[in-house]
């Protein structure tokens, strides 16, 4: 719907497409898709088949099952504050953003450097395991002698392609791989638990006493490494359909699922071999243990399937971590903490393709260096790389827990109780610091190296150097680039994709005489026509006030709430509800001085998700006796809505005192240029005949019959715009 856009007046009307989009594609991931990314990053079959077995062998203890359970509890406590913060901050930068908004911008930049190092180490390290394990299988099955790096580079090529495709396509790939992986694990668990050593199931590996034994630090960091990726829900928040709910649900589901799966699967191994023999058997058989056990009962063919799935498990983790790194680089580039080009997204897929390509290039460099120096892909690249990355994530989680406390201490957020704001994050911070201390104290045991080996202190020092470098860079930005510094941690709200500065100048009368540029317009006047995408964590009130004021007067408003005084009471609450939903589920654009707002919703896989799920209840609470009119309007608009894929211009409104100046036109054209680039048609409902001519100039045409509201109400005029009819508007 539109409000009184008014006759075209003096306005800056840019022509040509924006050079770059700096927002990730919205509404492409649901809860299940985010869970697939999180659990795939964990690589469950690899963790149990290799990580847990090697931990039994290297630490000479049986405590890894209870360590997994203990870490699941710690991370569950961490998640309480983490997802509480995610309800107020929607940003692909996740840890970096949370630290920036909780402890300050300078520490936030330091955390971002640590995150980039840690996640790259995790992702690139997995190439070694993928190549080495697959090479072994090919030699065993077919007698082929293929170098590990050849196979790693094949995976590298596929992941490079997937990284620039739509994120929902990536989630479908992961869904297939992860489902097969988890099914085979359940089958293996059933075999092991139904064939206990000595005919009796033993629970010694689940005893809490294992957490106070020697080497517990190595156990705990190994367990944490198995969960790395669970925090990724917040990284994908900008691409979810409902960030405030999706991130929380996906994070809790992933922690619970992975925690139970790890604890049960590693415990099942001790049940089959006997707790007193698992260390010796794991030392002898290493990563073949899980397959040798099940080959005795399931046959070679199903075990071979398991061997294939451990390779696909590594591949799924590679895809997941690649997407995480790409989005961290995107978030840092968007805010210009790193080169701004990293903040670009692909016009057709919405992927952070520059960040993806940079990560791909870095992975290639590391693989080549490991080949040139003849380093071991399993130990030097995968094992050390992933445990090193896991250490970095523990550091980030501990800092983030403290940041949650700082964030809520400075903001009065009524919907977050004391448990979520303070108690749970404080407990998690203490426990994570304990885990970190134990890990650093026993890092040599974790690496399987003597305590005097240089790697024991060099590897942890890398994070100290990265964090210090980030802090120094943050201080530099504060003193030398205050505009960039001020936007740190703001995510999408830091992006002012200014149409008038991002596009070439336009001559007057460029569109059949529509909204020409005035010859006496000064530079200051142009700011009001700048267009920016409003981020999901932007305050609701300033945006909703624009729409509340814009739609206060008009035929539709008078039909909905005839009494002006009642309308003034109802509209602020009604539009606050609409904007709150739009910031999470739609695309919101505003003028540079917040003089106009447009709200768009994608309708690609069905009708647009243009209202909260509990809209009827909320309308009755907000509108009281007038709720029936709002519900009637909703009903007739829904019945007339087209079913073809499109984008829906739900609202465009301009402050009353600035209507008729072309601001609404500029807002609409800004989005139409982006949609034309992707070949996306558009639909809207005009609220008065006077604006029909304007929309026709923009390429819209009336479609179907006018929508007549009940009780002799006014009419709405549905309009459809095919894709690219006015490319270059």
From TrEMBL:
Compartment(s) where it occurs, according to its Swiss-Prot or TrEMBL record: Cell membrane
Membrane topology recorded in Swiss-Prot or TrEMBL: Multi-pass membrane protein
Keywords on record: Cell membrane, Membrane, Transmembrane, Transmembrane helix
Predominant location category: membrane
InterPro entries listed in its UniProt record: AA/rel_permease1 (IPR002293), Acyl_CoA_acyltransferase (IPR016181), APC_superfamily (IPR050367), GNAT_dom (IPR000182)
Transmembrane segment boundaries: 29-56, 62-85, 106-126, 146-165, 172-191, 211-230, 250-269, 308-330, 351-375, 381-410, 422-443, 455-475
Residue span, N-acetyltransferase domain: 640-724
The organism's place on the tree of life at top rank: Bacteria
Protein name listed in UniProt: Amino acid transporter/GNAT superfamily N-acetyltransferase
Source organism: Kibdelosporangium banguiense
Upper taxonomic lineage: Bacteria, Bacillati, Actinomycetota, Actinomycetes, Pseudonocardiales
